[in-house]
Amino acid sequence: MNKFKGLLVAMLVAVLFSGCTKDKENISVFMHDDCGSAQFIKSLVIYDADRQNSAQLLVGSNDSTYLKLWTEQNFELIPIKYGECTKDVLDARFKATNSGSGKAVVAQESSDDPQLQLYTKFECKYLQDDVEKVVLYEKLPDMGETAWTYLTHYSKTLQPNDSITCFVYGVNSDVSGYYGLEMRTSENDGWSTVVSEWRQVEYGKSYVHGLRNAYQMKARKKVYGATESVVILFD
How many CB atoms are located within 10 Å of the residue 23 CB? Predict the structure, then answer.
């Protein structure tokens, strides 16, 4: 059994490495702890608007057709330089692109659709020397209809006594988004609730959650329609 597990891990690593360097649409059908319960995963290389900073992003879903809709064009990195305030950078970026009144319209609640969920986790980042961190911004694929999109972001795993912060920000002046936050204290522990689903995030509002001695955090969000409403940063 151990040999079989080792073979599966080796095959998964080989598939992901090939997907990063040659064929970004190469999809693995193995389960992967970093992407929760996602059955299908792939790795994408994504950039900021000036293509000066990049990252490898692990993307997963239980629906391979839905996963194929998400390409590197659906993700953008927003760089935050040393000394800059994350909220100030996001305020400047999204106030320039929003034309709404600033009073978010709360869309009607709906039940979760397990077929339309996406999971993401950074594998590695390549940042310029003056860039401290990057915010992941999703450009939702055109589904041909107005619907809910569910996205789950996983933080990196931490060492004992490390601290981690989750920064949540509302970016859409027309439609609110929602989020929930969980953490676990070790690889073998279950997830505990930090913020119950679903907490509303209106345009321009931000929430910060900091923890110490956590092994990992995950933030789940849902957004309505074709435009992203919430961005989440683990720092």
Answer: 11
For the chain, the straight-line distance linking the first and the last C-alpha, in angstroms and rounded, comes to 37
Q: Which residues contact 138 (CB under 8 A, 6 or more apart)?
A: 74, 75, 151, 228
Q: Report the alpha-carbon distance of residue 107 to residue 225 in Å, rounded.
A: 9
Nearest Cα to 180, choosing from 209, 142, 216?
209
Task: List per-residue pLDDT tens for the chain, 235 residues long.
Answer: 544 344 333 434 444 434 333 334 555 544 445 556 688 999 999 999 999 999 999 999 988 999 999 999 999 999 999 999 999 999 999 886 666 555 555 555 555 555 578 999 999 999 999 999 999 999 988 776 667 889 999 999 998 889 999 999 999 888 888 999 999 999 889 999 999 999 999 899 999 999 988 999 999 999 887 778 999 999 9
CB 46 within 8 A of CB 71: no
pTM of the predicted protein model? 0.81
The whole-angstrom separation of Cα 218 and Cα 231 is: 13
User: For residue 13, what are its two tokens?
Assistant: 């690593």
Q: Which residues lie closer than 8 Å to 72 by C-beta, 6 or more apart? A: 24, 44, 45, 46, 47
